[in-house]
Amino acid sequence: MGARVIDGTVLAQDICRQAQAQVAELARAGHQVKLAAVLVGSPPAGLVYAGSQRAQCERMGIAYELHQLPQTAGPGDIAERIARLNADPTVTGIMLHMPLPSGVDPAAMQYRIDPYKDVEGVNPANIGFCFYGQPIIAPCAALATVELVRASGVEVCGAEAVVVGQGAIVGRPITTFLLQQMATVTGCHVATRDLAAHTRRADILVVAVGRAGLITREHVKPGAVVIDVGVNRVKTTGADGQTVTKTVGDVDFEGVSEVAGAITPVPGGVGPMTVAVLLRNTVEAAKKQLARGKP
Predict the structure, then answer these.
(1) How many helices (H) and strands (E) does the chain have?
(2) Could you tell me the pTM of the whole model?
(3) Is 211 inside any structural domain?
(4) One domain, residues 154 and 253
(5) Where in the sequence is the domain holding 197, given as residue range(s)?
(6) Exposure of 81 by Cβ count < 10 A (0-12 exposed, 13-18 middle, 19+ buried)?
(7) What is the pLDDT of residues 139-184, one digit of tens each?
(8) Could you say which DSSP state residue 118 is in?
(9) pLDDT of residue 242
(10) What residues have CB less than 8 Å from 139, skipping those under 6 apart?
């Protein structure tokens, strides 16, 4: 039998329904949830994402504002806009679209977002708090991954987990979250020797590298839970001989599905869950500000 596919779209819908109910509850009490997004330039992908984000927020009753800065905006311009949004009591959540123009340090800009309004959980303060198990708002992709692991039904406590990819926003927070749930975690990265020797031990295998097809069936322990965080755009030849571009993960889905116990697809796995967690974080940010007496 093939692996059970963990449907991130269905799980995301449940998260959004719960968040929507909380938005309505806040509204009845006279409190509006409002997300402000900052986009530099007019990248087509960024504009599409912003439009999709606006529609999702509107469906949930979350007010949405897009602050579009010119492509020539420098660090000072971006920092000034973030400071203005931090000070605006009507804004309860802030996110900064990536990528930023060349010469602008993303981490320096993310650091300027108020940790209580940082709905993506990318402010270094929020990432740092993850290590103490008390984040104000945790990174979206890491939280989404943990939700998917939980949905697989695997017993995390005592499990052997391997996280391939140790980036600051995804891999390292995921590693930390799994450790906090008492998994035995191995962190693999670009310098890891004999990757398969590590991954074949994993009851839970999380891959967040950004390299299409990195993990094959030979890397996977039979029955393992495999969470594919990677998003890669690759060109392939269609049935009609034309070149087409498709989205794939870091895992060879077809091959690994033959040996894994459960697996997330790409698209349809971590992606929709990350968006749903962002919206849930937006609601949580508003509630935490109210608890502090703001706005």
Answers:
(1) 10, 11
(2) 0.93
(3) yes
(4) yes
(5) 140-272
(6) buried
(7) 999 999 999 999 999 999 999 999 999 998 899 999 999 999 999 9
(8) B
(9) 84
(10) 120, 121, 122, 126, 127, 130, 169, 170, 173
